[in-house]
Amino acid sequence: MPTYTPPLRDMHFVLHELFDVTAQLKQLPPHGEIDADTINAVLEEGGKFAAEVITPLNLSGDSEGCTLDKATHEVTTPKGFKAAYQQYVEGGWPALSCDTAYGGQGLPHVVNQCFYEMLNGANQAWTMYPGLSHGAYEALHAHGTDEQKSLYLPHLTSGEWTGTMCLTEPHCGTDLGMLRSKAEPQADGSYKITGQKIFISAGEHDMVSNIVHLVLARLPGAPEGSKGISLFLVPKFLVNADGSLGARNTVFCSGLEHKMGIHGNSTCQITLEDAVGTLVGEPNKGLQAMFVMMNTARLGVGNQSLGLTEVAYQNAVAYAKERLQMRALSGPKAPNLPADPIIVHPDVRRMLLTARAYAEGGRALSVYTSLQLDISLAHPDEAVRNAAADEVAILTPIVKAFITDNGWNATSQCMQVFGGHGYIHETGMEQFVRDARINMIYEGTNAIQALDLLGRKVLADGGHRMRTFGQKITAFVEEYGTREDMQEMIEPLSDLGARFTKMTQGIGMKAMGNADEVGAAATDYLRVAGHLVFAYLFARMAVVALDKKDSGDPFYQAKLATAGFYYAKLLPEVVSLMRTGRSGLKPLMAMDESMF
Amino acid sequence: MPTYTPPLRDMHFVLHELFDVTAQLKQLPPHGEIDADTINAVLEEGGKFAAEVITPLNLSGDSEGCTLDKATHEVTTPKGFKAAYQQYVEGGWPALSCDTAYGGQGLPHVVNQCFYEMLNGANQAWTMYPGLSHGAYEALHAHGTDEQKSLYLPHLTSGEWTGTMCLTEPHCGTDLGMLRSKAEPQADGSYKITGQKIFISAGEHDMVSNIVHLVLARLPGAPEGSKGISLFLVPKFLVNADGSLGARNTVFCSGLEHKMGIHGNSTCQITLEDAVGTLVGEPNKGLQAMFVMMNTARLGVGNQSLGLTEVAYQNAVAYAKERLQMRALSGPKAPNLPADPIIVHPDVRRMLLTARAYAEGGRALSVYTSLQLDISLAHPDEAVRNAAADEVAILTPIVKAFITDNGWNATSQCMQVFGGHGYIHETGMEQFVRDARINMIYEGTNAIQALDLLGRKVLADGGHRMRTFGQKITAFVEEYGTREDMQEMIEPLSDLGARFTKMTQGIGMKAMGNADEVGAAATDYLRVAGHLVFAYLFARMAVVALDKKDSGDPFYQAKLATAGFYYAKLLPEVVSLMRTGRSGLKPLMAMDESMF
Questions:
Q1: For residue range A33-64, what is the model confidence (pLDDT) as tens digits?
Q2: Closest-CA residue to B402 (of B338, B435, B450)
Q3: What phi and psi, each to the nearest 5 degrees, are found at residue A73?
Q4: Would you tell me how many other CB atoms lie within 10 Å of the CB of residue A336?
Q5: Could you tell me how many CB contacts below 8 A there are between chain A and chain B?
Q6: Which of A50, A322, B59, B349 could form a disulfide with A118 if both were Cys (CB 3.0 to 4.6 A apart)?
Q7: Most distant CA pair in chain B: distance in Å?
Q8: How many CA within 13 A on the CB side of residue A446?
Q9: Which residues touch A378 (CB under 8 Å, ≥6 apart)?
Q10: Do residues B350 and B313 make contact, with C-beta atoms less than 8 angstroms apart?
Q11: A540/A490 Cα distance (integer angstroms)
């Protein structure tokens, strides 16, 4: 069975040595008091919960899955899930980054990011229950009425109740403008909502006394398309004015999806039949309201794959050190053993280091983005807030798509380290691969992320936000351009920055002639952007590590080795991506649809 | 539920228009009489069996899996598997490419290749039962005594019995030199074999009256390592001299592996307890004997992923034409529908064409290699036989690793076309991905294939065999170098050939300094070699298609579009691979083992 060790040392490096987050947070009034010791203590405790409580439930949860009682519509989660959740609630973990006005602890996103990385690494399927709930909390916090907030937020903050996001319908996922669920206004100001939803994560389960569904539906006479969608709060049990639970609402789990992975999470078909709901936010502006939680949910999905990449790496390393098979081509490395441990083989190291570099790069990127999110929400200077929000806008699709594509690659390579044993359920490696696969799909497929980045975030403002971010890289290159021991990174980074600018301009020119050129280049473009950001962050990490490499702590040597590996073996992917990106639309459209 | 349409048109193109196989086979005495009509008729009937009989069992077989009765050690295959197998036997299909001396039909490998591609596309898990059996047939045919052959081959040929390959043990897979199973000689010339095997595909099942295990084990006093391994025939039921079945032998299925995919195949733990066996081939030369079937099995594994790539492509195309979601960025393409079919989106086409190009390239490569195999076995001129065998040696690891890596990529992309629906079991797309994953592992992991290619096949003979194959490409480039409408392919092909030669030389030089440089470069090298071969074959296909593009048959336009896509969007991967290959061993070894 796989094990999980919270990567606290690397988190400390990223939080404190690389980004000095406490200095940054000091400038944000809500977080001015938080110090490094507090952050580290929270992460240490959180890591214990992840490693000791939910790690042991991951493999068994996958085998057992969830079960639906069709008579009662109740869903039973795998053995141990409910007890672990109770422990989570008792520990106060759901409140970690919630508003203190509703009982939360008010910690910044950047701490929550690291906490959730560990939960995801330990057990993605379990973590989706509190994870989805936190998304619902955020949407309600941003758009709910005072009454909705006071009735629901304390229970979501405490974790007594959980929440869901009910968007997808059988005929529409990406294109929510097509959705058909209906909301009929009632005399008392409430709505009766009827419709069929699918793929609803944590949609029904046995862990809590109430489930708060946030449901997209159409009001009578609403405009067609995405401008006619409203958001409703539909609780499983109606909530009385005093906060006590009332009647069972007519929102039911009508089926569980049979999925490739995340078996421990109950992915539900949800049927609403005149279910009672209340409007959240303004009529017909439901999609915008939902996007509040969609954006942090996208960061959360990247974080899921970051967790999986780390845990797959850890277990592959343990196996590679222990499994004896063949001798090194250059001669025996462990002559006293019947064969060498497979970590002596360069290709095994290539697989391990791929996962390691993607984990370390992903962690640096995710922490950086979360910190910008905190700044965008709480800095006293509006210009600083806006600049941070611009970075979050650019980085969110990269976090979501680049980290999840890398996670798929990394978990598969870690599985490969196990040879045939990786294909067997009991080692847990194939589960990481199956779980990682959904992250490329939900919360907007990775192609949608790529269109979001290139179309909406880059080309729509003439490249302004991307250029601004690029200036950080340029400044870094200028600062360290003369440093001898950084040449192996500064030159390719500088070169990539220049080529990336040209690539952006080239696509922009083509897109003026045919908007489909954006769709043709977007996926390649996002991966190049992801590598540019990783190359920048690995170079920054290398600067920190170089200054401490003689400190006696092997951590810094290892960081330099990982950064070197990244530059030598992973970053060169950009050369191909620039070629394929440049080749444009024509090769994709040359074949008539009828010939497929 | 997925459907499968035998790709007969493309097979006819590859067999007859591209390679003119009947003209080639005419030179081989055993196959001199076979004509195109016969080949096409066999494939049409075979395709019907694949599409109509075993396709409908694929998804249900995955859901149901195999079950072991621990009391009787008997395994029950999924519903319908046994009846389908009976129909297969009644149709005479097991005999297709078997020796006429034992009741076979004696058809060439190149026909069997296409037949098996269809079986694999329809149902890989089911196809492994006859597939493994054919491997055992080949080893026995090559190395068995006359008595073994006359007792066993007719039953394997008819399909009444099936065979297995029992190699792997818990502590060794890649490194068979470590295996521990023991064979004790008996007074009557037989052996008693004791040991524990794992991962034995089709190791026990309910389809046939007897199962013939080919088992690797050690004789008393045998040399250590791979030079002390012998091969034994161990039947489930002992076989009397008259061919009738005798006592149940003490070879048992002691457990079924729980796997990521190929659930319909019974992957067994096999326990031998003084099981009666007879020696196959010479003592201590079991590994060489096993390699006879290992090499064709490797071609067979590539063929599995070829089949999966094709079927995943077909189903993704159907979905992309039917699923309505969003409008094309360049404006509505189906204004009368509520949204455009997703095939209008360039990124969806990229995913579809990736699978299509990998299927068509894989088919051309596999058919070419099978034809060389036939020539290597049956050409009257020894020099021709040897030249063909050299090509098979070079191409086998490419077929195995390049096609299976591509198949993993392609099936995953086809699944992505389905969005969230691809993650759901019922669409069948995620099964293709899970099934495809094993092909990168078994019959020698893809890293082992890469070492085989670069170390044993290329560097070991100073690059002679690879250069000889390269001369074919050079001759092609010279022949078509002046043809205007081939310039878009000839130039990159010629360029890649030259760079590949340099890459080979560069690695060869480095390897003289440190043998681990081979392991560091092998995986990148194999992928570059695979692309070189695909680029050559796509260019050859383009020549044929260009000459017929005005024939009115849209097939040729489509072939040109696919070849153009391949050159524009897939082949550029080589640019990155050459860089990473060139960066060598150092970035892989910079980190001390203790720091992982």
A1: 999 999 999 999 999 999 999 999 999 999 99
A2: B450
A3: 65, 15
A4: 5
A5: 274
A6: A50
A7: 83
A8: 32
A9: A28, A29, A30, A31, A108, A385
A10: no
A11: 10
In 3-state terms, chain A is what percent helix, strand and coil (to 5)? 65, 15, 25
H-helix segments, B273-428: 286-322, 346-378, 382-397, 403-417
**What six digits make up the tokens of B177?**
């030199």
B554 in reach of chain A (CB within 8 A):
yes
Q: Which two tokens stand for residue A528?
A: 């190049």
A 125-184 residues with CB < 8 A to B:
168, 171-175, 178
Non-local (6+) Cβ contacts of A590 within 8 A are B560, B561, B564, B565
- Alpha-carbon distance of A432 to A120, in angstroms, equals 11
String of DSSP letters for A280-329: ESSTTBHHHHHHHHHHHHHHHHHHHHHHHHHHHHHHHHHHHHH-B-S--T
CA distances from A31 to A34, A100, B356 (A): 6, 12, 53
Is some CB atom of chain A closer than 8 A to the CB atom of B460?
A: no
How, if at all, do strands B161-166 and B210-217 pair? parallel
Single-letter amino acid, residue A199: F
Q: Tens of pLDDT along B277-322?
A: 999 999 999 999 888 778 889 999 999 999 999 999 999 999 999 9
Closest to B362 in 3D by CA, of B121, B523, B572? B121
E strand spans, A81-209: 161-166, 182-185, 191-201
Give me the residue label for tokens 């399927």.
A125
Among B9, B10, B29, B84, CA closest to B374 = B29
Mean predicted confidence (pLDDT) in B31-42: 97
Q: Which residue reads 């209340």 in tokens?
A: A278
Closest-CA distance, B342 to chain A, in angstroms, reads 11
Predicted confidence at residue B592, as pLDDT, reads 95
The answer to whether A233 touches A211, Cβ cutoff 8 Å, is no
User: What are A342-361's pLDDT values in tens digits?
Assistant: 999 999 999 999 999 999 99
Distance (Å, whole) CA B329 – CA B308:
32
Nearest to B591 by CA among A490, A406, A321: A321
Sign of CA dihedral B489, B495, B496, B497: positive
Which among B469, B434, B91, B76 is positioned nearest to B262, based on CA atoms?
B434
CA dist., res. A433 & res. A260, Å (int): 10
3-state class of A390 per DSSP? helix
* Residues A414, A359 contacting (CB under 8 angstroms): no
Query: Is B169 in the active site?
Result: no
Given a contact cutoff of 8 angstroms between Cβ atoms, the answer to whether A226 and A205 are in contact is: no
Q: DSSP letter string over B116-178?
A: HHHHHHHHHHHHHHHHHHHHHHHHHHHH--HHHHHHHHHHHHHTSEEEEEE--BTTBSS-GGG
CATH architecture of B8-143: Orthogonal Bundle (1.10)
CATH code of the domain occupying A163-284: 2.40.110.20
Handedness of CA B300, B301, B303, B304 (dihedral sign): positive
Name the closest residue on chain B to residue A428, using Cα atoms.
B260
- Nearest-CA residue of chain B relative to A226? B326
**Separation between Cα atoms, residue A229 and residue A223, nearest integer Å:** 8
Tokens, residue B216 = 């690797």
Q: Collapse the DSSP code of B511 into the 3-class scheme (helix H, G, I; strand E, B; otherwise coil) and give the result.
A: helix
Q: What is the 3-state secondary structure (H, E, C) of A339-356?
A: CCEHHHCHHHHHHHHHHH
> Which of A310, A556, A596 has the most B C-beta neighbours within 10 Å, making it the best mutation to test the interface with B?
A596
- pLDDT confidence bin for A293, thresholds 50/70/90: confident
Residue B337 burial (CB < 10 Å; 0-12/13-18/19+)?
Answer: exposed
* CB contact B257 to A (< 8 Å): yes
Whole-complex ipTM = 0.98
Position A484, amino acid: E
